[in-house]
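Q: What would this chain look like folded?
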Amino acid sequence: MGLFNKLGGVLGATKELDVEEYMNMEEMENVDVMNEPADFYVKPVSLQNESDLAVIQSELQKKNIILLNIAELEKRPNTLKTMIDNLKVYVDKINGDIARLDNEKILLTPTKVKIIKSRKPAQKK
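A: My prediction, written as C-alpha cells:
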C-alpha cells in the first residue's frame, strides 16, 4: 500500500480516484475536455513531400498555426530548401510569419500573426 493510500485511509478517503468516473460526473456533463471546439488550432505537421505544402497552405488559410517537423527532409537539403523557400513566399503573400525553432522544427503563422524572433534584453529599473 502506497503512502497516499495510507494517508487517504487515515483521512477517510479510501476510494481511489477513477478518471472515467470523474469525467462522467454530473458537474462535468457539459465539459468536453478533449474535444472542446476552438476558433484556431496549433497543428503539428511533418514535412515529407511536396503534397504536404498544400496541407500546410490549407491549414494557414483556416488561420491555424503550424508546428512543422522537417526532420524527415534533413537528409535531402536541396529539397528541404526548395520547400521552405516556397513556404516563405506563401507566408509573405498571406501576411503571416515563419521562424525556425530548432534543427527540426519550424513555426508558421497565418495572416496577421507575427513571431517575435529576437528578445530585447531586460531593462534595469
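Confidence is low (pLDDT under 50) at residues 10-15.
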